[in-house]
Hints:
The complex is a heterodimer. Chain A is of the alpha+beta class. Chain A contains eleven helices and 14 strands. Chain A folds into two domains: 5-169, 2-Layer Sandwich (Uridine Diphospho-n-acetylenolpyruvylglucosamine Reductase, domain 3), CATH 3.30.465; 176-183 and 190-284, Enolase-like, domain 1, CATH 3.30.390. Chain A has a five-stranded antiparallel beta sheet with strand order 4-5-10-6-7. Chain B has two domains: 2-78, Ubiquitin-like (UB roll), CATH 3.10.20; 87-156, DNA polymerase, domain 1, CATH 1.10.150. In chain B, helix 2 (87-94) crosses helix 5. Chains A and B meet through helix 2 and helix 6 of A and strand 4 of B.
Amino acid sequence: MQEFSYERPASIAEAVAAIGAPEARALAGGTDLVPQLREGRRRAARVVDLKSVPEMTTIAALPDGGMSIGAAVTATALARHPVIAARYPAVAQSAQLIGGVQVQNRASLGGNICNAAPSADGVPALICHAARALIAGPKGRREMPVEAMFAGPGRTNLAADELLVAIALPTAAPRAAAAYLRFTPRREMDIAVAGAAAWLRLADDGAIADARIALASVAPTPIRAPTAERKLVGERPGAALFEEAGRLAAADARPISDTRGSADYRRTLVAVLATRALADCGRQLGFSIEVA
Amino acid sequence: MKTLLNCTINGEAQSVLADTRDTLLDLLRDRLGLTGTKEGCGNGNCGTCTVLMDGAPVNACLVLALEAPGRDIVTIEGLSESEALHPLQEALVQHGGTQCGFCTPGIVLSAKALLDENPQPTEAEIRHAIAGNLCRCTGYGKIVEAIAAVAGSQANG
């Protein structure tokens, strides 16, 4: 490992100043960065530890009724937060899929996003909730949808001198539900062969007013399944509809074949997982829906 | 580059000269000689390097030594008084929950953190708590039994 300097800024302004140095890397939980540095997969001349920046280590209510999750908040703290667990259960449950207890005690949602693995378990539920990435840089603050953060495997659309400060979840809509499911050969401590999150919001008449599906591990970045989403809107929740949406989501996926699974296998998994995630949403909304 | 770190390990204040690139695992094993903490995979998959940081289990191989100051770190050496085994260690011996022993320090610390927080865990909760600790000898059944036995004796005692 190359020599690096270590900085522990106490404010966003200090953190932005520190990250602007050449080959500076942000450190939250270190569960990706530390082995990457040791194995030479990423380089760092400076490591900027963000865990002393209050805004990045707290979960707070936003004025619009939504919630802000500091980018360095641990997966354990996120999963145990009473408001997140009650209003955004798919986000809390996704956090509990990242590694084992030891990893969850360190790993952060911000790191899960910025490491930009197509398989990141923390991301699909955020995309389904239309979460926004709150960003700070030398020119000030900006934001973008979480789903726009990804440029490719291991690469984000953050500029080199920018930091992901927090993730903003919009107000949890009434008559809405979300779920994330993944497939792994082992139940825990594994990387998703494929994953699918779904979010449904019902209109007053019980028809689907709005739908989002986000897929993991089936493209160079996490992706939406737009064809499946369009099929759902205006329809009434039901097994046949969700199975059709699952088939359309499989067609929206762009998987590759690798050691964890073939492209065909991944497409089949997407169909099953998206259908089941939709059925899970349907059950949360009071429908009795049985799918394969 | 070397740097002096002041940290608390097993309740004792330590002043250690460390390389800035050391992990917490390097600090414990190579600088302090606390070799009860094992290195398996070195990348957070196996859990043999599990230690408690402010009471929570973490993989020491994924923590920079530079992050240790100000945190309360407990290793397997911090669990037993002199030669007496901790009840979890005793139960693992009694139930045959240890064979080669390489995973055992990490298992004990993960189980300790679980029982400290949740003295009466279900079997599923025990299995979840040690999911990040790989054992290639016992098949986990006897480890789960040993942890459950300690939880049970705490309930009765």
